[in-house]
Recover the amino acids of this structure.
């Protein structure tokens, strides 16, 4: 093996090849630093006095399936300028690490395609070593993301474990990257984000969020002049919840009637969009029969379908008229759940109509939440919360695909 090979194959620049050995299935490559690397590690002065040598073993990328170790003959020198007595600094590895930079890069490339347990098994190293390399890389790249280029953001929470344990996420809607992960789901979870945002002097153009009073209050307090856009997915979901309440109330009030039998199995039919009903299962016929026998349910269902039209009007003015009409019809229906929904929409109409000025939503956040759930299932949960947060902030780089 030549010095040229160890330079091109193992990335050893500035080292001379000495010899190689094979011990217990491991490949040992002995090298020594060239004269240009022998200098004071503190002041970089080249005039030094040799004070002995030490061997440093460093794991590097494997050759085939054989583990490879670089055995470096490291001089210990005394600087004539500053008087410091230390070993010279090696450019191929970080201090107090038993592996090279090239081995770290190799591990980082593998964890993008394999689980950390698979990588540790393949390389014959501990799982904690792979995690440590991966975590340091994530912390370096995503530990303190820059907020100076933020324009449109979305705020939402995600459940991380049983017992109502939540994390609050802030996403950059232009890049799809999560730029902040806070503990809990209240306004307090966002306090560190507001502090960093204020220091960055970023001009946010619009914020997308759900109808959570805590998030609404936090945005209005910290970004008082920034438009707040309520995500239409959450508005429709809230209406679906009211429709489910109407169905349950009717089901409880009916005793031994044909209408009660018809209501069975209609929960998901009511929540489906009409174009998604399955003709092979006669879902359309079942739904129409249930609506024909239950007038309050029919009223709630058709109002639910009309609500989706708010975001398809030709202008903001037309949408405002349509929303006012919808609120009037819901209040006149005499159904308590619809009156509650009407009051909610009237209170939050400014954020619903703001969509026409800034057509953003927290839809990308829902996609990220699904990725996070997939990541959690693959890992069977995370005990290191800091590592979990870092993986969330780097999840926009992850790609999940079905195989087989």
């Amino acid at each position: 093996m030549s010095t040229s090979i160890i330079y091109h194959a193992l990335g050893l620049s500035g080292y001379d090849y000495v010899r190689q050995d094979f011990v217990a299935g491991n490949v040992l490559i002995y090298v020594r630093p060239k004269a240009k690397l022998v200098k004071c590690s503190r002041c970089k002065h080249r005039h030094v006095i040799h004070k002995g040598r030490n061997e440093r073993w460093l794991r590097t990328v494997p050759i085939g399936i054989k583990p490879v170790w670089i055995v470096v003959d490291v001089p210990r020198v005394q600087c004539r300028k500053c008087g410091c007595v230390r070993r010279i600094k090696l450019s191929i590895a970080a201090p107090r690490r038993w592996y090279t930079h090239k081995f770290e890069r190799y591990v980082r490339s593998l964890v993008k395609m394999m689980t950390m347990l698979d990588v540790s098994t393949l390389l014959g190293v501990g799982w904690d070593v792979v995690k440590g390399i991966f975590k340091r890389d994530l912390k370096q790249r995503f530990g303190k993301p820059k907020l100076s280029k933020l324009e449109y953001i979305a705020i939402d929470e995600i459940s991380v474990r049983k017992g109502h344990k939540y994390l609050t996420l802030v996403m950059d809607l232009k890049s799809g990257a999560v730029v902040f992960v806070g503990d809990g789901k209240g306004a307090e979870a966002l306090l560190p984000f507001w502090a960093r945002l204020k220091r960055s002097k970023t001009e946010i153009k619009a914020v997308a969020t759900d109808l959570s009073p805590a998030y609404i209050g936090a945005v209005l307090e910290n970004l008082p002049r920034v438009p707040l856009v309520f995500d239409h997915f959450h508005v429709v979901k809230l209406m679906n919840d009211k429709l489910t309440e109407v169905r349950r109330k009717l089901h409880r009030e009916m005793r031994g009637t044909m209408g009660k039998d018809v209501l069975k199995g209609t929960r998901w039919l009511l929540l489906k969009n009409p174009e998604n009903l399955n003709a092979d299962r006669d879902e359309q016929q079942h739904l129409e029969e249930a609506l024909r026998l239950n007038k309050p349910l029919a009223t709630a269902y058709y109002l639910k379908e009309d609500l989706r039209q708010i975001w398809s009007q030709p202008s903001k003015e037309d949408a405002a008229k349509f929303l006012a009409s919808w609120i009037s019809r819901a209040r006149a229906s005499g159904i308590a759940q619809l009156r509650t929904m009407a009051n909610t929409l009237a209170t939050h109409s400014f954020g619903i109509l703001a969509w026409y000025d800034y057509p953003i939503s927290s839809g990308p956040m829902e996609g990220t939440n699904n990725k996070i759930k997939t990541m959690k299932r693959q890992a069977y949960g995370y005990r290191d919360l800091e590592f979990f947060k870092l993986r969330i902030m780097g999840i926009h780089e992850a790609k999940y695909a079905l195989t087989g």
User: Anything to note?
Assistant: Residues 152-230+361-397 form a domain with the Nucleotidyltransferase; domain 5 fold (CATH 3.30.420.10). The first strand starts at residue 15 and ends at 23. Strands lie at 15-23, 26-33, 48-63, 66-79, 85-87, 152-161, 165-172, 178-183, 206-209, 228-230.
